[in-house]
Write a structure and sequence with these properties.
By secondary structure, the protein is α/β, with parallel strands linked by helices. The protein is built from 14 helices and 13 strands. The protein has two domains: 121 residues, Beta-Lactamase (2-Layer Sandwich); 202 residues, Rossmann fold (3-Layer(aba) Sandwich).
Length: 385
């Protein structure tokens, strides 16, 4: 495995400090230059892959920043000095790590340093300087109801890069703007920095404030929170504690890498050993208040637009979860429309009829394309009537 020659020295020096210090400016000058250009161009991600030039994601497309072809050691030399001590130790132990990084007068970033075909690679995401509102995200109006729930588990699913964390932050911001509550967020790393408006918000970063999600979550429960935000459900222990907290009266919001409501619910129980799955399904059936998933699609006018699916869990949904009949949850969405539920196909149909996305994009994204064709036909008839 290729390693930057100064990696061990950097790790040793940072570990001698009581707290991670800001990276040395001279050590991060190359990375800072790329990130400054990224922000200037309005791009979202910096991609550093061995054998390719540094590139950025702009409106869902890859653009090269310059013609320089990078090697794995060059990527490590550029990125490693920007990591804090915990992130460096994690990288040494697991060959993958996440960290937050700040450049004065430029912005904050989330770094993911990992291995690719035996070489170092990195993805660095620009983090917005403020939390967006739900309206700014162009999400369907019923999503706002998730911020008004008093208790229960709210799961936000979607593929990587679909905006799950942004939606989560917008929901927290909505609660913060409207209600006086105690909110604790647990993230790795912190992506959106919240200010206290009406609520008091504590933001715990894994690696800096707590060693892992289960430890942070157990500690947070002793702090009398009204709302718990778990950045990502990564392991069964975190899931177990989060479900238990939702059962006992807390509002718990979290994200999962899933594609629809049924897979979002299934991901929880399937993460446990077979002998524990029935028990966790019973607990999840009682705790789950809503499951929401979203994807981002190319907009007809440029940029990207979200399409989504929402299930507000009622009696029928709880019964399906208890009996592991998750294939019926799609039908349950239709049954609970009056409570705000909607299918992905309904969301896609509205975007097509509103001219926001192309019909072909919608059909490619639909999980039930036949349902979408029916909806488009009905919408077209209603429009022409």
């Amino acid at each position: 495995m290729d390693k930057a020659p100064n990696l061990d020295r950097i790790v040793r020096e940072l570990n001698e400090q009581h707290e991670a210090a800001p990276p040395n400016d001279s050590a991060t000058i190359v990375l800072d230059g790329w990130l400054e250009e990224l922000v200037a161009r309005g791009a979202s991600d910096l991609l550093l892959v061995p054998g390719a030039p540094p590139s950025m994601m702009l409106n869902g497309e890859v653009h090269n920043l310059d013609a320089q072809i990078l090697s794995g050691p060059e990527i490590e030399v550029a990125v490693v000095p920007a990591l804090n001590a915990h992130a460096l130790e994690t990288y040494r132990a697991n060959q993958i790590t996440d960290a937050s990084y700040r450049i004065a007068a430029v912005g904050r970033f989330r770094i993911n340093l990992h291995r690719e075909r035996g070489h170092a690679a990195a993805a660095v995401r620009a983090l917005p300087t403020r939390v967006p509102s739900l309206d700014e995200l162009n999400l369907p109006p019923p999503v706002e109801a998730l911020s008004r729930l008093a208790r229960g588990l709210v799961l936000i699913g979607g593929p990587a890069g679909s905006g799950k964390t942004t939606t989560l932050a917008a929901l927290v911001n909505e609660i913060n703007r409207r209600e006086s509550r105690h909110i604790v967020t647990i993230e790795d790393p912190i992506e959106y920095e919240h200010t206290h408006i009406r609520s008091v918000i504590e933001q715990v970063e894994i690696g800096t404030d707590a060693p892992d999600f289960p430890t942070a979550l157990r500690a947070a429960l002793r702090q009398a929170p009204d709302v718990l935000v778990v950045g990502e459900m990564r392991d069964p222990e975190t899931m177990r504690i989060a479900v238990s907290a939702a059962e006992t009266g807390h509002l718990v919001l979290s994200t999962l890498h899933t594609i629809d409501v049924a897979s979002t619910v299934a991901r929880i129980s399937d993460s446990f050993p077979l002998e524990r799955q029935n028990t966790i399904r019973q607990e999840l059936a009682m705790a789950l208040a809503a499951a929401f998933t979203q994807i981002l699609l190319p907009a007809a006018a440029g940029g990207r637009v979200p399409a989504a699916e929402l299930l507000m869990v009622g009696y029928g949904g709880r019964q399906h979860i208890r009996h592991n009949a998750l294939q019926h949850l799609h039908q349950e969405i239709t049954i609970t429309k009056r409570r705000g539920s909607f299918t992905l196909e309904e969301s896609l149909a509205k975007l097509v009829m509103g001219g926001q996305i192309e019909r072909e994009e919608a059909l490619a994204a639909a999980i039930h394309p036949d349902d979408l064709l029916v909806l488009l036909k009905l919408e077209s008839k209603a429009k022409s009537a």
